[in-house]
Amino acid sequence: GAVVSQHPSWVICKSGTSVKIECRSLDFQATTMFWYRQFPKQSLMLMATSNEGSKATYEQGVEKDKFLINHASLTLSTLTVTSAHPEDSSFYICSASPSMSSYNEQFFGPGTRLTVL
Amino acid sequence: SQKIEQNSEALNIQEGKTATLTCNYTNYSPAYLQWYRQDPGRGPVFLLLIRENEKEKRKERLKVTFDTTLKQSLFHITASQPADSATYLCALETGSQGNLIFGKGTKLSVKP
Question: Do residues A47 and A38 make contact, with C-beta atoms less than 8 angstroms apart?
């Protein structure tokens, strides 16, 4: 099956620092990748959609200058949380879709637990 | 805007029984709906996709129904096992770039 990896699996950082999270599709090419955030006992909330080679589309209320997304290749997307604050502490999950077809399922990474002190 | 609800936050059943989870949605007619399983501290794992023109879909012990009139999907696990204990999420497509919106999930606990 299609495998998506994320790195790191967890990270603890000081307030004001930046953190980069990588999302890789290991055995398929992903035209589209999605970034989600999940708070405890809450649903996954879509933050942004990124297509390879173009700018990401951010959901309403998500600051694009704070959450920088780069989808430089068909197998790698990165999310950088800039000037992180304690309220950014959350579980960040990426997913990848093998094509632009709206009928394809999304393959999720294992998630990255971010804790900002 | 689209709204998706999973009525039960938690469901406890005895091993061997059938678990039935409900997903309701409003303000939209999705072309398809998906069900995922999520274990604690892990990303969701895709289980089943059902399209708007399909009434029912099966995969091993799993069965999903889709009633576009009621705007509801039911997810069944027959002959449930303790290993089925997890949070189950339903998700519907929003019509934009394959984006999905997720329900909050139902935490299923199967007791031996």
Answer: no
A42, A46, A51: residue with CB nearest B104: A42
- To the nearest whole Å, the CA of B42 is away from the closest chain A CA by 5
Both tokens assigned to A109: 């990474």
d(CA B96, CA B112): 43
Q: Quick one: residue B41, left, alpha or beta (phi over 0 = left, psi -120 to 50 = alpha)?
A: left
CB atoms within 10 A of CB B63: 18
A35: contact with B, CB 8 A cutoff:
no
pLDDT over 70 at B96, yes or no: no
Q: B49 has which bridge partners?
A: B34
Is the separation of the CB atoms in A56 and A71 below 8 Å?
yes
B7 Cβ under 8 Å from any chain A Cβ: no
**Total length of chain B:** 112
Check residue A86 and report its DSSP letter: G
**Within 10 A of A29 (CB to CB), how many other CB atoms are there?**
12
Report pLDDT digits (tens) over B38-65: 999 899 999 999 998 898 999 999 999 9
B97 band by pLDDT with thresholds 50, 70 and 90: low
Asked if B100 and A106 come within 8 Å (Cβ–Cβ), the reply is yes
The answer to whether residue A101 scores a pLDDT higher than 50 is no
How far apart, in Å, are the Cα atoms of B40 and each of A97, A111, B36, B88?
A: 23, 11, 13, 11
